[in-house]
Write a structure and sequence with these properties.
This protein is an alpha+beta fold. It has one helix and four strands. It has a two-stranded antiparallel ribbon. Strands 3-4 form a two-stranded antiparallel ribbon. The longest helix is centred in the C-terminal third of the chain and has 13 residues. The chain has one domain. Helix content is 23%, strand content 25%. The protein binds zinc ion. Zinc ion (ZN) binds next to helix 1.
Length: 56
């Protein structure tokens, strides 16, 4: 059985092996970062929440 890489969430430190498909992989200055499913959702919410409210 091959060794699966263990990854840890860049935000909350949760680890998983192998990396779940629900995790987000992003390339950062330090290399590849993973965001767990929960942090991915929080991230999306933050992006949506950061939209200007006076858009209209
Ligand atoms: Zn996380």
């Amino acid at each position: 059985m091959p060794d699966e890489p263990t990854v840890s969430c860049a935000w909350c430190g949760t680890t998983a092996s192998p990396p779940p498909v629900t995790w987000t992989v992003q390339t950062a200055a330090r290399g590849i970062e993973y965001l767990c499913e929960r942090c991915t959702r929080d991230n999306v919410r933050k992006i949506e929440g950061s939209l200007p409210t006076d858009y209209w």
